[in-house]
Amino acid sequence: MISVQHVSGGYTSESVLTDVSFEVGTGELFGVLGPNGSGKTTLLKILSGILPIRDGEVFIKGKRLQEYTTKQLARMVAVLSQHSSQSFSYTVKETVSLGRYAHQQGWFQSWSKEDEQVIQRVMVQTEVSSLQNKNILELSGGEKQRVFLAQALAQEPEILLLDEPTNHLDLSYQKGLLDLLKTSTIENGLTVVSIFHDLNLAGLYCDRILLLEKGSINIQHIPNEVLKEDRIRRVFHAEIKKHPHPKVAAPQMVLLPNLERIKHSVKIDGDLLSFSKEYIELSAPIALRTMSSAVLGSGVGWYQKFVNRHVDKNYNCDDYREEMSAFLKENGFEPAETVGMMTAVYLEDVVYQLYEQDDLSIFVVVTAGVSNAIDASKSEIHSFENIPGTINTWIFVNGELTEEAFIQAIMTATEAKGKALYDQKVIDKVTGTIATGTSTDSILIAATQEGKCQEIAGTITPLGKLIGKAVYECTTKAIQKSQKRMRR
What we know:
By secondary structure, the chain is an alpha/beta fold. The protein folds into two domains: 2-255, 3-Layer(aba) Sandwich (Rossmann fold); 270-487, L-amino peptidase D-ALA esterase/amidase (4-Layer Sandwich). It contains twelve helices and 24 strands. It has helices at residues 40-47, 70-76, 92-97, 113-125, 141-154, 171-188, 199-205, 223-226, 229-236, 320-330, 403-423, 462-487; strands at residues 2-9, 17-24, 29-33, 55-60, 63-64, 77-80, 159-163, 191-195, 208-213, 216-221, 240-244, 251-255, 273-275, 279-292, 299-310, 338-343, 351-357, 360-367, 373-374, 392-397, 400-401, 437-438, 442-447, 453-454. Strands 13, 14, 15, 16, 17, 18, 20 and 23 form an eight-stranded mixed β-sheet that branches. The protein has a six-stranded mixed β-sheet with strand order 6-7-8-3-9-10, with helices on both faces. Strands 2-1-4-5 form a four-stranded antiparallel β-sheet, with helices on one face. β14 (279-292) and β15 (299-310) form a beta hairpin. α4 (113-125) packs antiparallel against α5. The longest helix has 26 residues, at 462-487. It is elongated and about 95 Å long. The N and C termini lie far apart (81 Å). The model has no long low-confidence stretch (mean pLDDT 89).
């Protein structure tokens, strides 16, 4: 649809863009990224014919851009600039109607039924129908942006050029606009070239991305290749961290503020534990980076409060997360800021200990009952019963962990727990074989993210050795205490 071949150009004798080449296919949403002054808007103005090409060629549908008349180009290409303005006191409908000019015939322009249908449709699509009789000068910046998008869509273009289309729009309208554009590329074959300021929106919606740097192409590729940490740091001179979107296969970037984190010399140990008849609580002085399988606070997040709640072995609730949330509120905890687990184990049988080795230290807390012990290799023999459980393991690391180390720490801890059950000869009552855990075990790894960084936590790494020893010993003691109680 669009072919840009070795294009150079700009506003003055000096070229803003130098030797830029790329292709955009029919029905593609093609993003343009780059820092301020990199040439993004210049590129869009060259594609729309506003700025001249100094060197190279731009082809649209195989024909040189200069060979199109203004009206021919307007029928094919619509433009929404970053700073669209309206100097005349038109209504919204009149403003949108201007987009139909390229389709009018003869000296005396006639308004057809088709024209009316088109503008009504695009006003609905851009959610400005309710504003159609208002004066555009009375609208907010976000409302005007949607009106000018409707005007561009009213041209029924094959190509849409957009300069930061989500400028002035709140979150819901950003999503609505980009969903509309993406749907139009898929269903109607609309070709979209859009400048993005927001890297995450580009990563979510673009098929491919062109990254400009100082007027030249740094890379043009799929979003996952363009949005790489090292590249974005170099081009934008900003500290960022890349992570996957939780729902779709799209890269996302998190900005890391250049602020010195206050050093607290925090050490998580037994002094931070408190006990009641209903729960064990650890209250940390700072938020800890956490990965867990808890009832509340599962996944990855930052938390200061950690609760292991005792429930009756016959506990049964249709919405146990909601019930747990209500319990935490009743006891003065904010559920959104708390990791909450349940256990049928008597809390007096908890085992906890600080383990230290050289410059490493971890604090481990374990409650363990094995009445619903399971051999994972034979779990298909069991019927599903969500019995409140049993082996809950907390591991607090006084140090910094990478994402890799968090996952490896969970693996190491799970292996150590399994060995403890093996050595204690804990039996799966259904299969008669050695159990590997219980049906409702939970685990938590939390780190202060201060101090020495632990890159990995496999079984024979310094951190892994400490976790393996700590979890094995604490789980063993907790099982022994629980079994002793059951024999009374």
